[in-house]
Design a protein that fits this description.
The complex is a heterodimer of chains A (about 290) and B (about 280). Chain A has about 290 residues and is α/β, with parallel strands linked by helices. Chain A has helices at about 75-80, 120-125, 130-135, 140-155, 170-180, 200-210, 225-230, 250, 255-260, and strands at about 15, 25-30, 35-45, 45-55, 60-65, 90-95, 105, 185-190, 220, 235-240, 245, 265-270, 275-280. Helix content of chain B is about 80%, strand content about 0%. Chain B contains 14 helices and no strands. Chain B has helices at about 1-5, 10-35, 40-50, 50-60, 70-90, 95-115, 120-130, 140-155, 160-165, 170-175, 180-200, 205-220, 225-250, 255-284. In chain B, helix 3 runs parallel beside helix 6 (about 95-115), helix 4 packs antiparallel against helix 5 and helix 4 (about 50-60) runs parallel beside helix 6. The chains are: A alpha/beta (about 290), B mainly alpha (about 280). At the A-B interface, strand 7 and helix 3 of A face helix 9, helix 10 and helix 13 of B.
Chain lengths: ~290, ~280
């Protein structure tokens, strides 16, 4: 008679850091959603900019956060990055609070950096490795290899030793993506990366972001262009201080939902194939300042 | 020529002056690179004046004792002031320059108020604030070597973290690096550099060395490590050339070093402008 031993199979765990002895970073819970936001309220100086936001995203999903100016898009991204403490509710990244992860890359609006700073593209990307290299240590050959391959992935290898000042707007966004890759980010938060870029550069940046899907990187991007949100993202979160809609583009981008979010800033013209939406991006539809 | 070079070295005060000028040139330029890039050039002047209350309290407590003790009072005050500047800019919505200005004004006024209650203080104060590079003692050189060495060592050890918090503090926070710690460390390194240079070479030369060589190097280089090395080299060269000019032409030593440093900056400005013009011409 064969006695079958009952065994408990431990949950597979995926470490966000492979380095030995760095136990201060979160362990990813594979069963948990890549991003889980539950009843989140966040803001500044005691004033909430977003209230009671809840949604979940799976690993590798792409979410577009849209809404009028002042809707709280940047506030949400900062809360997800762990740069802003929630007033209420929870943010869980792979099952843990964002402040315990180093796998989150936050790409701010590009004018927040001093592009005259004397560093090359390779140095810029290497900054994303700082935590993995550790204090009192110099970059090793494997760090240089990661930087090289990250620049290669965004086709900036030829400019690796150039100063960052020389880059165009599209190249700057590609550089941010390279830095996130070097950081081994599993969640990338983009705060309006398409502002000021021409249509051709939009396509380049969006193609790179589409490639991130193959690497199972979850992407959350705030943007104004509803047609890009509909065509390049798996899900849309429509904000106006609170959740006006969340789900697939088809479910969210309906006339009723859009009119509630944008009010008079939106013109919906019926068409034989559905509806033609004219969205005035210069119009402020929210009550809050854009933060 | 050889005789021209060697003659000043026969005087012990010139040898000490050269060592001090080179050390201050290297130290101020290395720390100054971060000062210039963060746009906080005002901090040198502010810290120099903010040590006044510490000097006043030190003077009162030391009395007619060893005035070398004033250095420690100045150093302690400068470190506290630097931490205060960092704290205000971190905890409020003010930018760093506003925080520096607020602490500077408050501490300077407090210093003046304290001085006005003590007679016979002004002479010691003038000596401390407007130190003379040719009047440097062996004790000053030992302090400069010890503290300056520690500052350079910490800059080297925490270089990548200091670059990160100076360039992109948001990235530092998302990487969960102790951004506040490294920011405060940088403020303290600047404070120590300012006090060391202040009592050795005086306020004018310290301010010039903190900003000019680093700015010159910024014009000539495109990477921060090169900027640090070129800045340190230019600071040291300005010190040596300035002191020789001072020796042979009878010009005030501090002023001569500052003028050489400014001349280097102007040359670099012309060179980098020409380089930029050629680059644009090639592109077009």
């Amino acid at each position: 008679m064969i006695h079958q031993k009952s065994t408990v199979i431990p949950k597979r765990r995926n470490f966000s850091l492979t380095k030995k002895g760095r136990s201060d970073q979160a362990i990813h819970d594979v069963d948990a959603a890549a991003v889980a936001v539950r009843g989140l309220s966040a803001g500044y100086a005691g004033q909430p900019a977003i209230v009671n936001i809840s949604f979940e995203l799976g690993r590798g999903e792409r979410l577009a956060v849209v809404g009028p100016n002042g809707a709280g898009k940047s506030t949400l991204l900062k809360a997800l990055a762990g740069l802003l403490d929630p007033m209420k509710g929870k943010v869980l990244i792979h099952g843990h609070g964002p402040c315990r992860h180093i796998c989150i890359a936050y790409v701010p609006q590009k004018n927040t950096l001093d592009w005259r700073f004397p560093i090359t593209l390779a140095d810029f990307v290497m900054l994303g490795r700082t935590q993995r290299i550790g204090p009192l240590r110099k970059p090793r050959s494997q760090d240089h290899d990661v930087v090289r391959s990250s620049l290669e992935a965004v086709e900036l290898t030829a400019y690796a030793q150039r100063q960052i000042e020389a880059l165009s707007g599209g190249q700057q966004q590609r550089l941010f993506i390279a830095r996130a890759l070097a950081q081994k980010a599993e969640l990338i938060l983009f705060d309006e990366p398409l502002v000021g870029l021409d249509v051709h550069t939009h396509r380049e940046v969006l193609a790179l972001i589409a490639n991130l899907y193959r690497r199972a990187v979850t992407v959350i991007m705030s943007l104004h262009d509803l047609s890009i949100a509909a065509s390049h993202f798996d899900k849309i979160l429509l904000l106006r201080g609170e959740t006006m809609g969340f789900g697939t583009p088809k479910a969210v981008l309906t006339e009723d939902v859009l009119r509630r979010a944008y009010g008079s800033c939106l013109q919906v013209i019926p068409d034989k194939d559905g509806a033609f939406i004219i969205h005035d991006t210069a119009c402020s539809g929210g009550e809050h300042e854009d933060v | 020529m050889f005789e021209w070079l060697v003659a000043p070295l026969r005087f012990a005060f010139m040898v000490r002056g050269l060592i001090a000028a080179i050390s201050v040139g290297v130290l101020c330029s290395a720390v100054g690179a971060f000062v210039v890039l963060r746009g906080m050039t005002f901090i040198g002047d502010a810290l120099a004046h903010s040590v006044l209350p510490g000097l006043a309290v030190g003077f009162i407590s030391i009395g007619k004792g060893d005035r070398r003790g004033l250095f420690w009072w100045a150093m302690g005050t400068a470190i506290l002031v630097a931490l205060g500047m960092g704290w205000i800019s971190e905890r409020t919505r003010f930018r760093e320059d506003a925080a520096i200005g607020i602490v500077f004004a408050g501490m300077f006024a407090l210093g003046i108020a304290l001085i006005s209650t003590v007679r016979g203080f002004s002479v010691d104060l003038v000596h401390f604030l407007f130190g003379n590079v040719l009047g440097v003692s062996n004790h000053d050189l030992i302090l400069l070597g010890a503290f300056g060495g520690v500052v350079l060592l910490l800059l080297f050890l925490f270089y990548k973290e200091l670059v990160l918090v100076s360039f992109d503090i948001t990235l530092a926070r998302t990487l969960r690096i102790r951004a506040s710690f490294y920011r405060y460390l940088l403020f303290v390194l600047i404070a120590v550099t300012v006090v060391l240079s202040l009592q050795t070479v005086g306020i004018g030369l310290m301010l010039a060395m903190l900003v000019t060589p680093a700015s010159t190097a910024h014009l000539l280089t495109k990477r921060l490590p090169s900027m640090l090395l070129v800045g340190a080299l230019l600071g040291a060269i300005a010190g040596v050339i300035g002191l020789y000019l001072s020796f042979y032409w009878g010009v005030a030593s501090g002023a001569a070093i500052v003028l050489v440093s400014i001349a280097m900056f102007l040359v670099a400005l012309v060179v980098s402008s020409r380089r930029e013009l050629v680059r644009r011409f090639r592109r077009s």
